[in-house]
Amino acid sequence: MSSPESADPRQVIRDHLDAAEVEYDEAADGVFSFSLPGEKKLQTAVRLDVGTHALGIHAFVCRKPDEQHERVYRWLLERNLRMYGVAFALDRLGDIYLDGRLPLEAVTPDELDRLLGSVLTYADESFNTILELGFESSIRKEWEWRKLRGEPTHNLEAFRGWLESSPRDQDGDQGE
Questions:
Q1: 159 and 86 within one domain
Q2: 120-157: buried (b, 16+ CB within 10 Å) or exposed (e) per residue?
Q3: Owning domain of residue 94
Q4: Are residues 92 and 154 in the same domain?
Q5: Could you read off the pLDDT of 37-86 as tens digits, one per residue?
Q6: Residues 49 and 80 in one domain
Q7: What is the rounded CA–CA span in Å between residue 61 and residue 52?
């Protein structure tokens, strides 16, 4: 039951994104797509879907990990216990998302700010850990390739600490 004071959630979202100077596409009525800028994860793609009863929020975090799936998924599930408004989820391909639902009555500028802030924080704070756990071998190979050829390693700086140490949990693969 909606009261006369209830604002159209679509308009609340438009107004909020405009006020935050977030560029967005509204491909269909009530379907908003945009990116949120981060620090560790430079861009987080977000989609808001205004449904009949709820607002759905979907944010892409990372593609399916290459390795250590159980460790990655366990870490994500443990994080879910401490999160507000959204939770980590997997699609049918194994790609990692943040996903949540909000009753339409709760779609207010303040709640949108909290929810989008949660998405931005969780995507950004989790990104390097997901990469370290799920793509360690690829990151290590890229680091070694760049070091051998004198290529820049600035985009791998976040991983320097463990990259310069001996390989973690590997079966004696000490080089060539």
A1: no
A2: bebbbebbeebbbbbbbeebbebbeeeeeeeeeeeebe
A3: 9-134
A4: no
A5: 999 899 999 999 999 999 999 999 999 999 999 999 999 999 999 999 99
A6: yes
A7: 26
